[in-house]
Write a structure and sequence with these properties.
The chain has 11 helices and 15 strands. By secondary structure, it is of the alpha/beta class. It has 2 domains: 138 residues, NAD(P)-binding Rossmann-like Domain (Rossmann fold), CATH 3.40.50; 181 residues, Dihydrodipicolinate Reductase, domain 2. The strands form 2 sheets. Strands 14-13-12-11-7-10-9-8-15 form a 9-stranded mixed β-sheet. Strand 11 and strand 12 form a beta hairpin. Helix 4 runs parallel beside helix 5, helix 5 packs antiparallel against helix 11 and helix 9 crosses helix 11.
């Protein structure tokens, strides 16, 4: 596909969309054609800032506009439904993590993509950290030997406290539209990381609870433990942590070394070995433009036909969703949940 891509947006209530639209406005080989969003305030904003056509209903947009692909940034449940419809209409889809509110929604998206033979990308914001990209490559290439554990902690003191918009909070705090609370919102990162580095776990054990925010309808903290034959993985989530001192660090443990990734686009990668147990900074190569941002990567992959970053594949996203679903069941029942092989 070498022509310029006409891209639409479905949903504007996920605050991450406002970080992605500037990239789309300047993307080579793509242009923003239209956006669909029921909320009039958000429709007016996108029309004012980006000059695109707007629609209150996404099906109307899909019917009236000539599109090649869509970006989906609504709530987890409604976004999966919209993604299935877009795929059925022959459009490529980028959808924000964690892909859906539940495993049924993730499976429906994957089936629709396969049937339509269209591309489905799951955006994980951490995928665009150069240090994390390099750490994953080092682990894959055996630089730290057999990997026996991954760990990722995502934490802040709550969406509302962190400044999320009222449109975002409206569904983040709704367990039906979100699919849960902190567990699905933030354990999803550690689940996806484990899936990419270690594969599908054999079982999941989780604990979750409303520890501090008594007014919530769902959990504000959660921990997932994923078991493998010769490894384990931990995903932690918190909506009640004051400060970010321990948040967003990625750790990959191997028999011959440990990799620690500091958060953010400028985060360092530290590599500890038996000879240097304190860890040494690793020179992280400069990444090309299409590895620096979700929209640039999506457009590049559609234009070239190349595969998505491993974290962003639909298959990895689906398996992460299976881990989250098993984790929710485990936290509710108090039992370890086995996953199909």
């Amino acid at each position: 596909m070498s022509k310029q891509l006409n891209i639409g947006v479905i949903g504007l209530t996920h605050d991450h969309i406002w970080d992605n639209l500037p990239w789309l406005a300047h993307a080579k080989g793509a242009r923003l054609v239209a956006a669909a969003e029921p909320n009039d305030t958000l429709r007016r904003r996108v029309a004012r800032e980006y000059g695109c056509a707007v629609h209150a209903d996404f099906k109307t947009m899909l019917k009236r506009e000539t599109l090649d692909a869509v970006l989906i940034y609504g709530d987890n449940r409604g976004g999966a439904v919209a993604g299935v419809e877009a795929l059925r209409r022959g459009l490529h889809v980028l959808i924000e993590k964690p892909m859906a509110a539940d495993l049924a929604g993730a499976d429906a998206l994957l089936r629709a993509a396969h049937r339509a033979q269209r591309r489905l990308m799951i955006n994980w914001p951490i995928a665009w950290w150069p240090a994390l990209q390099h750490a994953l490559a080092m682990a894959r290439d055996g630089k730290i030997g057999h990997v026996w554990q991954t760990r990722y902690r995502a934490a802040h003191n709550g969406p509302r406290e962190m400044g999320a918009s009222r449109f975002f909070c409206d569904w983040l705090y709704d367990p039906q539209r979100n699919g849960g609370g902190a567990l699905i919102d933030y354990c999803c990162y550690g689940a996806a990381l484990a899936r990419v580095v270690l594969g599908r776990p054999h079982s999941v054990l989780a604990v979750a609870g409303r520890l501090c925010k008594r007014d919530l309808a769902t959990e504000d903290n959660a921990v997932l433990l994923m078991r493998y034959p010769n490894a384990l993985a931990i995903a932690e989530a918190s909506w009640t942590q004051v400060d970010k001192m321990t948040a967003y660090f990625t750790v990959i443990y191997g028999e011959q070394g440990t990799l620690l990734v500091e958060p953010g686009e400028r985060g360092r990668l530290l590599h500890a070995t038996p000879e240097h147990p304190g860890g040494r900074p690793v020179r992280v190569p400069r990444v090309p433009e299409h590895q620096r941002h979700a929209v640039a990567h999506f457009v590049w992959a559609l234009q070239t036909g190349d595969g998505f970053h491993p974290l962003c594949s639909a298959e990895a996203g689906r398996d992460a969703q299976a881990i989250l679903s098993a984790g929710a069941r485990s936290a509710k029942s108090g039992r370890e949940i086995k996953l199909p092989s």
